[in-house]
Please model this.
Amino acid sequence: MTAMNDEQLDQAILRYLGWRAQQLEGTPDAQGMAWRVADTRWTPRPRWQWSVAMLATIGLLLVIAAGALLVAGAPQPAPGPLVNGPLVVANALGWRGTDGTSGAAIQREPCDGLCEEAMDLRLSADGRTVFFVDPTPDGGDLVSDRPGWAIWRWDRLDESVRRVVGCGEVDCQLRKPVPSPDGRYLAYAQGDGIVVVDAGNGQEVYRLPDLVADGWSLPFANVAWNADGRLLVLDLDVDGFSYRTVDVSTGTGAEFTLPRDGLLESSPDGATTLLMTGEPDVWRLWILDDQLEHTRVLWEGAPWVSGVTWSPDGTTIAGQTMAEVPPPRSVAYDLQIVDIATGTLTTHADDDAVAGQPLWLPAE
Amino acid sequence: MATDELIDPELITPVVPASRPNVDAGLEAFVVEHYDRLLRLARLVCHDASDATDAVQAGLEQAWRHRGSLRDEDRRSAWLDRIVVREAIKVSRKRRTWLDRILGIDHEVDDGPHVPDPGPELELRTVLHSAFSVLSPEQRAVVALHLHAGYTVQETAEIVGAPLETVRSRLRIARDRLRTALGETRP
Model:
């Protein structure tokens, strides 16, 4: 790396910007631009032309409104299932990944602020929104960033990104945002507890504190959603662990039993729930049945270092594992893709040896 | 037969329209006052000068139509910059679809330094041009507004209509990329 300091960098950038701003070949002069601006559809028209245009517009709106009423009265077709699109991994180098099925590589794409530091990316059940955590959203200035945490929503239709909820303190870690199957709520882990907010405006609707007692190694509380819209939470008490379902509208819940503790991972529609358990070197994925009892080991292997991402059609999960390998690469990160029905495993080697956050997007 | 009768008037294509629109003197003064600054600002955001021209034209049209809505004349320049920069981002984004971004397809026009200008400054410019071209339009916009036009981060956030945190993040990422590009090319 060069020894260029911030001031020298700024000077170099400024000189470049000054040069680039002069690259104006082929542009009109000011008089030409004034002419172009004047000679547009926005040039004021004679009043009678506006009247005709307005009448035509009103007529068109009436026709559209009548059509909308007819359509609204007709039975609406059910939305079709989502089709799997690209499976990408976001890390400090940008997007990269595969098409998720054939394994064909997708070229790296530098991200534009969305994925640079994004963590815990989670697609909504309708495939329209991606929720993610940014660990430094409240960065102070360009020299010394103040750490902080926030959860953002990226609406894929208009490609807008806005903050749902945030916290500017170092010890206020927000993790694992999980939208409810109906899209109304967003649950996330805040320290040792779970918070549920309105997914649209970030207003808190429910809070479950103190779910991770001292002595447990889990870095943050764990949450998932069931298909019936209930929260699934793991309570790590000093005396042991328990699982329960919670109705966020009433605060009532019921316990359910699993023979071992682990992380719950539910599909975006809540129809499938997995339990991820981990020994130091071997992690297992158990699939839970309708009664939330684990029935079989779906997969076992190296520890997952990323969150789980579900394929938009809910049939497959993917995540990144880490394993030690001989020099010169001491660590290898691989993208694991597991078929929920068959347990079939597909592994994509990641040559960059950089941990990333997977996200499986629906097809356009 | 008179010479004039041999020429079909319809075959004569005027270089400029036969009758220029009657440009309002106020509009012309308005454009002349702000055009150079806006064009340079848009040029920093857009892929090429043609896109920048389109963005400025669209921005000036909007501004002229809504000029009555501006209450604080002292903020006229910032108001115009906001309109034009947003148009420039919009124009640039049209060049890149979501799929393009996933697939890494960039439509950047290579209008890099092609005039012989030997020396370290050319190398620096070439490297920065390459790195600057792969920044997103939003990142280019905040760099242009903050570093080139001299707006504060808060003012830049208001102009691009993004949260303060987002603007800071974009600036930091842009600077890191430009710094990395420079570092990678030097021993």
Notes: Chain B touches chain A through 68 residues (CB under 8 Å). The CA atoms of residues 14 and 160 of chain B lie 41 Å apart.
